[in-house]
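Bumping with the actual sequence this time:
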Amino acid sequence: MIESSIMSLETKPEFFTVDNGYYTDKELDYCFKHDIKIIIPYRTESERKSDIPKKYAKCKFTENRVENYFICPE
């Protein structure tokens, strides 16, 4: 998504804002290697302002990294 944004903008942005929990280590490494600053809210801050019930917070889901999916706590 970062590379797609850069191609659309036709320039490298100074920074990106991202939602807490919707980024990967690969994306963070890319930003670091390309000197792009990222702004990420603290998990507690994003949960406090969210309309989504806390039982559906990403940290409550079980992740299967091998097959790339999450299991809902319910």
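The tokens above came from a reply further down the thread. The chain has one domain: 2-71.
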